[in-house]
Amino acid sequence: MTQAVYTKLPDRAFICITGDDKRSFLQGLITQDIDLLDTQPLLYSCLLTPNGKFLFDFFIHENDEKIMIDCEGGKRASALFKRLSMFKLRSKVTLELQDNVDAFQIFNGAWDGNYKDPRHDACGYRAYSKPHDINEVNFGIWDTHRIKHEIPDGSRDLIPEKSFIHESDIIIESAVSYTKGCYMGQELVSRMHHRGLAKKKLRCIDIKNAPEGANLRSTCGDVGLILLKLT
Fold this sequence. Notes:
CATH architecture: 2-Layer Sandwich
Oligomer: single chain
Strand order of the largest sheet: 3-4-5-2-6
Strand content: 25-35%
CATH superfamily: Probable tRNA modification gtpase trme, domain 1
Distance between the termini: 37 Å
Number of domains: 1
Shape: globular
Structural class: alpha+beta
Number of helices: 5
């Protein structure tokens, strides 16, 4: 296997959660089982609307008695922070938003890192300090690599409050627990999964071959993700 390369991911933020109830607070909200942090250092998960539509996707890791949510930055981070704050109620948790943080994607080869990206083997690793032992590449190289493997990039590919997470095989396979119990939007997700109700999927396409009026999402160079009806 060749040596990995890395790129800095643009516009990322952290939401830091501390307090005695930090895990139980998230467990009833997110699609993934927070207790997997006992056996793997990085989780991928989503927050949905009550009727099961996509709102946010993010990564979760835990250190120094803090849970860190690695999410889209800017207005998206502010919206996620506000949404989580609404559900605090009497939970013993404190939330802190840290915008414009450093996050890096390491991919396309072997690398000795702690945070293996749980979405797909092709994703490699994530890091939160600049790697010094491998070469840096332009973000577009990662973006093309991601699209070719049909890996969605948050709200670039899934429309908040409109998209179903079943549009992405990657999300359904890596961001959802079907055994953890209830969470917001769980009933619809479970029903669509077990009954095979998904009617559309995100697929990679050569842009020059895209049909007129195609529902294109993120693009880079000659490739893009398109939402296609299943036949």
